[in-house]
Amino acid sequence: MLVGDWMTEEVLTILPGAPILDAMKMMRDAGIRQIPVVEASGLVAGIVSDRDVRDALPSKFLPGDSASTVGEGLLGLKVKDIMTHDPIVVAPETCMEVAAELLLENKIGGLPVVDEYGIAGIITEVDVYRFLTTVTGVSKGSSQFAFILEDTASALEELLNDLWARGVRLSTVFTSYERVDPGQRRVFVWVQRLDDSTVEQLVLHLKRAYDLLYHVHRGVTHKSEF
Known about the structure:
The chain contains eight helices and ten strands. By secondary structure, the chain is of the alpha+beta class. It has two domains: about 130 residues, CBS-domain (Roll), CATH 3.10.580.10; about 80 residues, Alpha-Beta Plaits (2-Layer Sandwich), CATH 3.30.70.
C-alpha cells in the first residue's frame, strides 16, 4: 500500500510570507491541523501546525500581552517565522507503513507528499487511521481472530487453508513477534462479516485446533478460556 493511494490530494497550502492569522483561519475553517508552506515556485519550504500557531498566540492571562502591543505584535508575524523549516517529506511511492513510522517517531501529525512537479498532497494521522480501518475490514464490520502459532510457514498455511476450507473469506492477515516466546509469532486474521451462529461454531473449532487468544465480533472482544 502506497502513500499515493491514501494521501489527501486536495491539500491546502500557504505562502511563507502570509500572516499567521491567515494560517489560523485556514486551519479553523477547514478543520485541519497542519498546512504545507509552499514557495511561489512550488518548492515545499516548511509546514505550519496548529501547535505552532498556539505557541505564537499571546496569552489571555498576561496583561498587555496582545496583538496590539510592541509594534505590530502578533499581526506582524508571518508563517515563515513560526513554521518548521525543511520538513520531512515523502513521495507518493512511499509505503504507508514507512509514513506511519515517520509520523510516530517524529511525533508529528502530517507529512507533505512531493513528486517531481512539487507538492502532490499530504499524508496525515487521519489518513493512516483510514488506511488501517480499511485494510483490516473494520469499516465493513469484519471479525478478528488472534492466535499464537509456531513461527513456520506451514503453521500459518495450515490455519489459513483451514479457514478457507470452512468458507471463511479472509480480509487481512498481520503477524507480530512481540510478546511471544522464541520460535512463535502472533497472527491476527480479519475475516469478512460472519453471522453470530457461524462465529460460534468457528470459535469452538479454532479453540480445539489452535492457540486462539481472543476473537472480536461486532466490536466486542471475547478472550479464550483454557
